[in-house]
Design brief:
There is one protein chain. The protein has one domain (2-92): Ubiquitin-like (UB roll). The protein is mainly β. A five-stranded mixed β-sheet has the order 2-1-7-5-6, with no helix packed on it. It starts with a strand and ends in a 5-residue tail after the last strand. The chain has one helix and seven strands; from the N terminus they run ββαβββββ. Pathway: tRNA modification; 5-methoxycarbonylmethyl-2-thiouridine-tRNA biosynthesis. The modification 1-thioglycine is found at residue 97. This is Ubiquitin-related modifier 1 homolog. Belongs to the URM1 family.
């Protein structure tokens, strides 16, 4: 099994029932990338308003993704291959006003 910590903050947690931190186990039969993780999150954790989290097949602009505190842009974006015990954080940078 692939063990991940998935965190939501900056308001993104509102889309996930106000739960900021999730400990998840994913079947290790396939290689998990951020692309596959986003689909899994949509199908398993997202409570409402998927359009506020995803746009087409990627993350919506305005949501920063960090993997082990590193910007996913530096790691290969959607193609980053997840490793056991990775911490994946989604931070909304969009705020109402």
């Amino acid at each position: 099994m692939l063990h991940l910590t998935i965190e939501f903050s900056g308001g993104a947690e509102l889309l996930f029932g106000n739960v900021k931190k999730h400990q998840v186990e994913l079947n290790n039969d396939t290689k998990w990338t951020i692309r596959e993780l986003l689909v899994w999150i949509k199908d398993n954790l997202l409570k409402h308003k998927p359009e506020m989290f995803l746009q087409d097949e990627t993350i919506r602009p305005g949501i920063l993704i960090l993997v082990n505190d590193s910007d996913w842009d530096l790691l290969g974006n959607l193609s980053y291959e997840l490793n056991d015990n990775d911490n994946v954080t989604f931070i909304s940078t969009l705020h109402g006003g």
